[in-house]
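Before relying on records like the one below, remember that each one covers exactly one chain. Contacts with other chains, cofactors or solvent are not represented anywhere in the record.
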Amino acid sequence: MQQKLISPRKLPGFWELEPEKQIGFNDMLRKIESVFVNNSFYPLDTPVLELSEILLAKSGGEIDKEVYAFSKGDTSMCLRYDFTVPLARFVAANYNNLEFPFKRYQIGKNYRGEKPQKGRWREFYQCDADIIGNEELPLVADAECVKLYDECFTSLGFDVVVEVSNRNLLYGLIEDCKDLEKANDIIVLLDKFDKIGEENLIAGLKGLGIANTGIKKYIEAIKIKGEIEDVKTKLMKLSKNETYLKAISELEELDTYLKAYSCTNYVFNVGIIRGHNYYTGTVFEAYLKNYRSFGAVGGGGRYENLAGYFTDKKLPGVGMSIGLTRLYDLLSQSDLLPKTKQNPFDVYIIPLGDYTTECVEICAQLRKNGIKSEVAYDNKSFKSKMKTADRREIPFVIIVGENEVKSKCYSLKNMSTGEQENLNLEQIISKLK
């Protein structure tokens, strides 16, 4: 009886690319990692699985509903949904061995059980860079994280604008309007303003029992956007609350540091809130210039108290993140992906006849000298192999036949120019290097 074949399908929302596309994706990843390294961030790789009590310590909001949770025996665990909470755990556990400020980057997969849609995946790559302080962390660290976006996206060949705010602006207003007991619900609604529109936002706030004066202030605030002078002027008209005024002062200080970093790719936007409850001050989101419809391709902010669930030491931090899977997906759908080399090697060695062993020996010597090479050892015709080299845009082909083996001089063909010359292996290595 013939075995029933299983359909080779994968779970919806999980990430998988063809090799040629993966090459381009990896190239983007390496460029971002290079920026992190050049800015003196250390690498870190935390476990994909974390104890539930760790990962959910301070998530809250919609995130709890999206976490993949498991149990093994009496152990409850979750797939990480981002890198920030695992970082807080790591720093708390290794406090005595770290130098502060501790600057780390992490690139890898995270998981969220949300509905797959355009630019939204259940499995996705994030590229994070965070700075953790001991007891205190100056606002210049926030500026450093914001300016990383310009360097990262410049390396990818795109212009980016970072929209910056401070969460305490809204918390100050909420305190001023005496709505503190409903603060989290108000913040969640305000964060959805772009998605639900003003009419639905007003209805939602009224449903929370917010007074009309408060609703007017909240909506007026989240519409404020521009350069620091204009933003400050408009904000000063709304409240004199102490928390609120301190947040305005922090925006001014942040602006000073960003200018010192020669940043020009940012704008202040009070409507930037971020959905995670652990953000306590500066928040920001990155958007591609001319492609605002893509939505945010990165975001982050400051968290003063995240590690408080794991240690009694105060370890404030600030971090930025790029959603690389989301970015790649959006660029691919819009035919905007950077052009990258689509083959993993530079030399294709083709035997003419039964000379595979000799080709393998040549390949081994080329690889020892740092030259990426491959042997065409399948049973296709010579013509077919040459077409493969041309289609895959392989720069050079080495042809190995009877005469080449006897003379130890091999035909090296430049696939771009068509130029062909007979060289010994030493000469070929010198030319290709």
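Residues 349 and 375 are 5 Å apart (CA to CA).
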